[in-house]
Write the structure tokens for this entry.
Amino acid sequence: MRLLATTLRICVPAWLGIGALAAGAQTAHRPQLVVQLGHPHVNSVAISPDGRTLLTGGDDDLARLWDAANGMELRRFAGHSGGVISVAFSPDGRFVLTGSWDNTARLWDAATGKELRRFEGHSQEVNSVAFSPDGRRVLTGSGDNTARLWDAKSGKELRRFHGDYCNMESVAFSPDSRFVLTGSSVAFSPDGRFVLTGSDDRTARLWDAASGKQLRQFAGKGEPVQANSISSDGHYILMGPGDTTARLWGAASGKELRRFEGHSRSIQSVTFSRDGRYVLTGSFDKTARLWDAASGKELRRFEGHSGNVLSAVFSAGGRWVATGSDDNTARLWSATSGKELRRFEDRSEAVHSVAISADGRSLVTGGGLWTDWTAHLWDTAGGKAPRRFEGHTDWIQSVAISPDGRFLLTGGRDQTARLWDAASGKELRQLKGHTGEVESVAFSPDGRFVLTGSWDETALLWDAATGKQLRQFEAHPENKEHYTSRHLPYQVLSVAFSPDGRRAAVANMLEVQLWDTARGKELWVVEGLFLSVTFSSDGRFILAGGHDPGVASLLDAATGKEQRRFEGHAGNILSVAFSPDGRYVLTGSADNTARLWDAGSGKELRRFEGHFAGVESVAFSPDGRRVVTGSRDSTTRVWDSETGKELASLVSFTDGNWAVFDSEGRFDASDPGAGAPLHWIDPGDPMRALPLAAFRRGYYTPGMLKRIMSGEKLPPTARLDIVKTIDHN
């Protein structure tokens, strides 16, 4: 029997030998482990020309590529330093284009995720991006009042379209590429002759792509033009003028022809189907709607999002509709029935705080943004599954472990701090008294007292055993009046006990205060924009990380006098820690990095890079050999403090699953067969996801966190050969 053009994939450890399978072409790849996290806030969606993949851009500074058939994440496009506002596929689907709050647009290889080109020159955010119909040019619209035309291959700016003091928030090409239409998004006409732009001056504008000359202006009503589109024949202009009505115009006449009315809140997205027969709109009323272009009649409603629909598009063939929302999901719908077919969603939550027990046997993480307001206790000594602490009604801002490891303390946006039994996960006590979110919590060194800091501008001292409030620390009335009269924030963002428990450091956005805990007396005040504080192990110094970009200050605990500065971060310092021996300083920053410094000289020694979002919390293991970081990118990461190498990432998922994994593909998970949202990508077939079980034998590493924290060097992973046999008899 003869089999033509058949592909056989057999995965075996290399040491088993594969000589008998050498009839076909043989290539070796390391499969890539993908941990599906999703976006916090989906700003934009696009469907590939072949309909196989979905592209999303989010507030996590990433674009993500998804398998449209099964909802699995295929790839991340990482590099932007601001949220991704707009995304697009090239006409052949081989490339991805993104626009961001970091003022750049970027071109990526869809198959590898590699950044190929950067389009720089805008002085404000890039709100909208588009390819010309032939894929040779790129169009961007920005808040700097310009739309710009670029050569896709070289990245060179070819032409600029100026608005009259108005943000270019949408652009579009005409079908023959000759014209450009500008608005709150950008688009080429299908032939590439025209460019369409729309702006916050309530107009859309049609431009000649070759000369940059403005040809026509279409006036909206009342609100900035949020979206626009050109029909495939170039005869019609569709405009979403920021209110509840979409409008259809004649491209040649400039005359309004039709209105699409029905949304109850402002329209954020508009587009034509490829054949021009239908119109699709997305709105702040949490729906997308399908309309008959000829009559203006509403045909179908796509309902289910719990947040604003920010983006809505047709698939190339018109069979599907994709929507993106600030409910953290993108969704795929049947255009004919309106039924939701698939959901591409955020399966994890941000990590705001991490803490390690004094004996190093437990690691605590706390966080959340939208739904999963839990803390997790990870067993770093016994390798048990993490324990969940549930009860807060909003996200957890801070966590701490009592010195004896028996209790867990959490502070949340629900204005409470909570004390938990670490062994059982049972809530023991709620500390109620703050009138704002609790931003920071700490145990006294003897575990008898608890200190909390809040957005209500106070720090409170509590009896841990009874939950009774003992003392309140707040600024002198004259200081407070000085700041509030200038409308400056005074929220308490960080608190810390001295090693002897006799003093408390309190940081707000304007100063650091040192208090005598027994008398409630303020000892000194240092002005500055501070976000985080901690004491050295000997109590002689206080480390304060600040809002002054890139700077942490070492303060003399006795006088408050600055001794040293640690400078180099490109963003605010969100978290600080001393090494157990006091020789080193650790900082976490909004620039997505943590850094290790020499405490004596202020010299940067090491950089911990890999997070996709700000590092909100940092900690040392008790022996100082490991560094732990927590980030809004939903991961907690463990690093070797001596080399800076990332050893593992920890993720807890909203459905109760969890995973520990590393960059080489080793993993441990609550369900190593299929339960956790992990899967593989074969680099030889980058647009197809494979189940977790496919490579379990070579990469599953039980007790992985325990082994890493104990200092064990994990053995190399087995190389897996992917054998392709073609034209096999």
